[in-house]
Amino acid sequence: MRTARTIRHVAAAAALAALLAACSGGGTPDQATLGATSTGTTAPGATPTSPQAGPDAGPLPGVGIQLFQWSWDAIAQECTSALGPAGISWVLTSPPQEHVLGEQWWTSYQPVSHKIESRLGTREQFAAMVGTCRDAGVGIVADAVVNHMSGQEDPGVGWAGSSYEHYEYPGLFSDADGDFHHCDAPDGDIQNYKDASQVQGCELVSLADLATGTEHVRDTLKAYLADLMDLGVAGFRIDAAKHMPPADVAAIVADLPDGAVVWQEVIRGGGEPVTPEQYVDNGQVFEFGYGRELVGLLGGSTFRQALTLGERGMLPSDDAVVFVTNHDTERNGETLVSRDAEYLLANVLMLAGAYGTPVLYSGYAFDDRDAGPVQDADGRVLDATCADDAAPTTDLEAGAWTCEQRWPAIQGMVQWRHVTDGAGLAAVDESASDVLAFSRGDLGTVVVNRGDEPATGTWASTLAPGRYCDVAGGTVSAGECAGATIVVAPDGTLSATVPAEGFIAVHAEGRVS
Fold first, then answer.
1. Is 78 designated active site?
2. Looking at 265, 330, 429, 501, which residue is catalytic?
3. pLDDT at site 61
4. Does the annotation count 239 as an active-site position?
5. Structural domains of the chain ordered from first start
6. pTM, whole model, 2 decimals?
């Protein structure tokens, strides 16, 4: 029997599949916790379509990316010049609403009004970005801060000129109307994460906690989300969902149209009563355990478990959004980050895996965990820039953009994932302790070397004999390789030297004469 979840998932997958076919000619193409497609261009004459999946809809097809603190103009340009051509299906933006003033990144997560006006751009720029990205086949998922307002004790004026106080936001919320929670814990802040009533009824580091169980608060938040939907977004990341009862989140997203993306931030904590599983009826949930586990697998003795990651102690695959790092975890030391040697391999394993909906990450280098992106004299974030030869590096200057979406190896693996999507695991070879080789059906083979020395060997492949592009060097385009080639022999094996802390990858659509 088909459930509503299954029907919405099938519809979303079909919509994206149609878009991919049209575009490719049928080819396959603390403060720190506050934020705690293969596509191309739309077919001539067709209506641009954003890849979408609804609440309860299961995983989106394709690969997404979080462009943290990127301006709307920069995202629009990136959709056209890089993301669409690379096969990225959707972008997770930073929060678009008016926020408190300040240079730190977390000011974006302290709303003072629901005006679509921030240091990342104006309402008009946001709407233009959504349209430009949609035309490039890339959907926009907006980060929605609906659990709280600001944490400022003193009255202030926000980015767009709105006056506010800690518990007074004219035209939106007022303490006098019962729009905020106040609890008996010291300073009103969460003290005990093993007490669900505190987690969901006290303040998170002094942030004015909205009474999301009340009709007025819910209706106001619904109106904010509806406004963003009218601007064309595909859906939302629900920031700090853990700090709202699941029923409150359900009520807030209840009026979203079928096909709207709902991703919830619920960080799993050992022995805590609030768990990600409680939220899956509202939509997908970020599985923080995934990135944490990758750290150990790339440095420990259980390398093969990378192939079954997600089967133990995590959400079911259809409910999980997975990532190597995000804007919180890169600042708290829980996960690998772009300056780590193993970071690229972690992303390769995520893209080659079958668990969850994968989201890449692209932010900026920093020396201070609170530091915001580079801004002009008025506090506006400068447009991100990426070098033509963007690649993994350990020595970016503070403020430089990391640009993972431009790395040839990342683009190559996004393409590899599109080609192999849905194929089962095959030809696993873990005979060497630091090398893991495997295939997906008869569509692609990957060999990953986590060791600090090159690995020369021969591994089984399920591909037909022939010469193939190694997409570790970039994508295959019009039968041309961006990097080296690898030969699959008549006996179905491939022989190669895999770089230290590197990989090779070939897929069925990368065969060359």
1. no
2. 265
3. 67
4. yes
5. 287-356 (no CATH), 420-512 (2.60.40.1180)
6. 0.90
